[in-house]
Amino acid sequence: MTTTDTGATAPPLSHARVLKIALPIVLANASVPILGAVDTGVVGQMGAAAPIGAVGIGAVILSAVYWLFGFLRMGTVGLTSQALGAGDRAEVAALLSRALLIGGAGGLALIVLQGPIFAGAFLVSPATPEVEALARDYMQIRIWSAPAAIAMFGITGWLIAQERAGAVLALQLLTNGVNILLDLWFVLGLGWGVGGVASATVIAELSGLVLGLWLCRAVFAGPDWRNAALVFDAGRLRHMLAVNRDILLRSLLLEAIILSFMFFGAGFGEAELAANQVLMQFLMITSHGLDGFAFAAETLVGQAMGARQRSRLRLAALRTSLWGLIVSALLALVFWSIGPAIIDLMAKAPQVQQTARIFLPYAAVMPVLGVAAFMLDGIFIGATRTADMRNMMAVSAVIYGLALALLVPGFGNHGLWLAFLLSFVARGVTLGLRYPALERAAAA
Fold first, then answer.
1. Whole-prediction pTM value?
2. Could you list the residue range(s) of the whole structural domain that residue 142 is in?
């Protein structure tokens, strides 16, 4: 055991400790695609295409809207882990209350504004009248669990900050398990169709919130979570809002890069568009694989920052990044060796398979070229150096835009992939250049 600058004791920062945080998160992420497959599969048994499309587009729209609140998870991890490192248990409790209040208010706002949100979404992504009508039915049911779904971002971040990754895994398994079982009952057993899929998700998300609150029950036994003077302290609220604002802006820039990649790919023809979509699943696999280690970095770096221990912060950054590099190298090897088989599993059209094979090398090197960006994101979130994240993402977006202008006209889809990969490299390099300032802040 080591002693922090605040006098608190901290367990050794071992590789086992990193894995104890990371592996449950990786397993939790692995359960997400299973739920999507079940949602699609049960409505597919209805024997019509419209319900499948309605559930697909409805889920995408709501996921995109909820994703805007993803800052709540990231900001809560950084702030809570720093409060823990500083030994400020009262602030740890208050942060949970603030996260729940923000999540609940955000969810209620979505319920109130659902009309214009859905109308705007269908203007951007128009569908046939039948699909749109079914998708609206689906979303109008699901939106009622928005406060629970968004509050769960805060609960998840709060638990991760305390290295309770097993609790996060239990939350994910319960939520997805309830959802799957109710999917089968409501749709196949009761014949509720698209509404049954939505109702299953609502009940599952509410169940997840109940379990999440139960997992946090120890904090509710004390007085700090309801200390209004602390929870609504103006300075702490401003800091929390500034952190969350910067993460949101950074995330919007990242989403703009990803969406523009798909948009420009559509200009090269159906085969290239489909191939790019297939290969983007390799990015999702990479993200799920590295998330656990980035989360470990958020937690351990945040605790070291809160304790003002520069050497411990550096050790946390190095050990979590080492595991991130190992996982990224393994993923690259998997993509190189069985990438064609993965492509054939996801796409049956020969032209799409052939085109995806041409561009597979770009997807195969993506984990290695992107690992620095993933891990430094976690490090900077833990340190709550979110203004640096926002600014360096803006620089990377400009570099990406210039690369598009220079490479796409001459190299087509190859140029698009090169620009996309360059955006990951730019994020890693620019954040790396800001890392020394992060260490200096820890020692201040």
1. 0.90
2. 12-232
